[in-house]
Design goal:
The complex is a heterodimer of chains A (499) and B (188). Chain A contains 18 helices and 3 strands. Chain A is mostly helical. In chain A, helix 2 packs across helix 12, helix 6 crosses helix 17 and helix 17 packs antiparallel against helix 18. The longest helix of chain A is centred in the middle third of the chain and has 43 residues. Chain B has one domain. Classes of the chains: A mainly alpha (499), B mainly alpha (188).
């Protein structure tokens, strides 16, 4: 760590500021005071913010889009999924590096590099995540089971999200508990259903396909399929800005330097919230004991990233691919519907196939899962959206610090819920597919951009001893080239956006 | 002397037993909701739920004996790698028995078991997940009278202590941070 007594400190210097002791100069915002790192928790328990990322990330990409590609191109196409999810795991670790070292969100990091970058993400989030697409997709599936009109259940579902968060004491805890239970049911349930209907050859082919590196049939390179494949890679694991929001969950979980910042309270408990400091903190990287604790925190987040995030994302998508293969065997309509890209018809045909294979119960369970994925996605995304926008507003909109972070959070949360209800009632986009297509395009663009931001924040703003190594930098750099390159190649070569 | 010991053992094995039986109840419950005959739903509940409950009980016993790490995914995955295929095999056989059908073993037994073994990882993760998120409250209830439950709670509270320390730190630094928040931001 460079120590400087220069009266005009440059980024990357440690200086002494009046009243706060040593500070770390990082970029263009307020310097970060030096504080102690807390001890890392034991890795005994599989709880961590990665669970929320898994719950956010496991969505229609895993349950619909990748099974579809396997049916159309064969299981060998799954090597692209392996690349996509592994890349995301590394990105997740790099997001965690910045958030754990500073207690700041990656949005704050972007502002330290170049403030318009942060406003770009603010705008992308506002454009992409205000649509109630996940909720309507889940509600359509629920209608298949219960007969309750999807519009009613979608609106009730949206209001329920707001009510739950409003009355919770600590918002993070309720999000973690809620998504934990939903994910637990999804994981156990999907394993049981696959055990009842699949075969060894299905899962064997699916697993082997993950290692068919370089397999790309000619049809995959056509205007009809290339954008879909790029979109599906973007949907492999957490897509769009979900990785950026992960840094906010790390802060609320109290991971490493995040422990020095207060947590967001529910609206009815907002008065108990401590004042949010105006920036994050840094620890002394010259102190051996601090570096020992930092290594423990890195181990903790590695467990989180590879056991929870990578493992469960892989598992769920393998199970759903096996289910799709079993369904295609049972009912040729599944293959036709999947190839034609009619999502609703494909989901219906898959449910019919399961019903004929294992009784009506399997068809119902399938729709139950799709419905669960939809509601779970909405819970996580609306919370994360409000969290991210509140973070940027609080720190960078003049006068916003007069309010508590919780109040700004709830303004965004109820705002997005109200907008969602209005769109469901009067919006032009009736079907969820249209909404998800737009989301896929902007998701890919945001993903390429945040890889660039990560390279900048972690290599420019952190002390040398805790910066990423060459391998991590190369992988994140590859991510930037991959996401942005594929997006623009698709535009230039085929004149189409990813979908 | 025996009764308290039996009671303690029952308390310790309840989570594993409940998760296994719960899995059967979910499958049977959904069968009932789907309009399948009550007998079919009941048979599904019992023939799937009981083997999973018995193996779940075994997991809890190993956990209490300290042979399995609390919250560890790898030990649970190894345990269910063996037990999940067995539970599914027992389910297939006992379903036929309960339904009054002639017993038909899966056509290719080894591929069947291998397939179930592969999926056991999913069940293991879900099992540990529910165990770690739902049952800590159960151990807290028992900790005063059950030494093993107390041991579990102590392991969980290591994390809680860290959180408390954090809250204390945040509150202590509150006036200083509030003052910092009032200061105008430095412009580059």
């Amino acid at each position: 760590m460079t120590t400087s007594k220069s009266p005009d400190p440059r980024p990357g210097d440690v200086t002494t500021a009046e009243g706060t002791g040593l500070v770390w100069q990082a970029g263009k915002q307020d310097p970060m005071p030096i504080r102690k790192l807390p001890e890392a928790p034991s890795s005994l328990h599989i709880i961590g913010p990665a669970m929320i990322l898994v719950a956010l990330g496991v969505g229609l990409g895993e349950t619909y889009m990748w099974p579809r590609l396997v049916i159309v191109f064969g299981p060998e196409i799954r090597w692209l999924f392996l690349i996509g999810v592994t890349l995301q795991a590394v990105v997740m670790l790099e997001m965690a590096r910045y958030a754990m070292a500073t207690g700041e969100s990656i949005f704050f990091g972007a502002a330290r590099v170049f403030k318009p970058l942060m406003w770009f993400f603010f705008a992308v989030a506002a454009l992409v995540y205000i649509w109630p697409g996940h909720m309507s997709a889940g509600a359509v599936a629920l209608e298949q089971i219960t007969g309750i009109p999807w519009l009613i259940s979608a609106i009730v579902g949206l209001v329920l999200i707001g009510v739950i968060f409003t009355f919770s004491k600590i918002v993070y805890e309720i999000v973690e508990k809620l998504l934990s239970v939903l994910m637990g049911i999804l994981v156990i349930g999907s394993a049981i259903v696959a055990a009842l209907v699949g075969t060894l050859s299905d899962v064997g082919a699916t697993l082997a396909g993950m290692f068919a590196f370089g397999y790309l049939p000619n049809e995959a390179l056509t205007a009809a399929w290339f954008p879909i494949i790029v979109g599906s890679i973007a949907f492999a694991g957490p897509s769009g800005m979900q990785q950026m929001w992960y840094t906010l969950y790390l802060r609320d979980k109290g991971a490493a330097m995040g422990s020095h910042l207060p947590r967001i309270h529910g609206l009815v408990h907002a008065g108990e919230e401590e004042t949010m400091p105006s920036r994050g903190f840094m620890f002394d990287t010259d102190d051996q004991d601090e570096m020992r604790k930092w290594k423990s925190w890195k181990r903790w987040v590695y467990n989180d990233a590879f056991l929870l995030f990578w493992g469960i994302t892989m598992l769920v998508t393998i199970v759903f691919t096996v289910l799709a293969q079993a369904a295609a065997r049972q009912n040729p309509n599944v293959q036709v519907a999947l190839e034609s890209g009619d999502e609703d018809a494909a989901l219906n045909a898959m449910a019919d196939a399961f019903s004929s294979a294992g009784g009506a119960v399997l068809g119902i369970i399938f729709f139950g899962f799709i419905s669960l994925v939809g509601w779970k996605g909405s819970v996580g995304i609306f919370d994360a959206f409000a969290r991210g926008q509140a973070d940027m507003t609080y720190f960078f909109v003049r006068g916003a610090k007069r309010f508590k972070m919780s109040h700004i959070y709830f303004a965004f949360l109820w705002g997005v819920i109200t907008f969602g209800i209005l769109i469901l009632l009067f919006g032009p986009a009736d079907g969820p597919t249209e909404i998800l297509d737009i989301l896929a395009f902007l998701s890919t663009f945001a993903m390429g951009s945040y890889c660039v931001v990560l390279l900048l924040t972690n290599n420019m703003l952190l002390p040398k001893k805790i910066r990423p190594g060459i391998v991590a930098n190369t992988i994140v750099g590859f991510g930037a080239v991959f996401y942005l390159g594929m997006l623009f190649y698709s535009l230039i070569a085929f004149g189409t956006i990813v979908s | 002397m025996t009764r308290p010991r039996t009671r303690r053992a029952a308390e310790l094995t309840f989570p594993g037993l409940a998760i296994g039986l719960g899995t059967g109840v979910i499958a049977g419950g959904l069968a009932a909701v789907a309009g399948l005959p009550a007998g079919y739903a009941a048979a599904t509940t019992l023939t799937l739920g009981i083997p999973l409950a018995v193996f779940g009980l075994g997991y809890s016993l190993l956990l209490a004996a300290g042979k399995i790490r609390l919250g560890g995914v790898a030990p649970a995955a190894l345990y269910w790698l063996v037990c999940f295929p067995l539970a599914r095999y027992l389910h297939e056989v006992s379903f036929d028995v309960v339904s009054g059908n002639p017993i038909t073993l899966p056509d290719a037994l080894l591929p069947f078991l291998a397939y179930q073994a592969l999926l056991s990882l999913g069940y293991a993760i879900g099992f540990v997940w529910v165990h770690e998120h739902v049952f800590p409250y159960w151990w807290i209830r028992l900790r005063d009278r059950n030494p093993v439950a107390r041991r579990y709670v102590e392991q969980y509270t290591a994390q809680a202590f860290a959180t408390q320390a954090r809250t204390k730190r945040t509150k202590e630094s509150r006036p200083r941070e509030a003052a910092a928040a009032q200061r105008p931001s430095r412009r580059p």
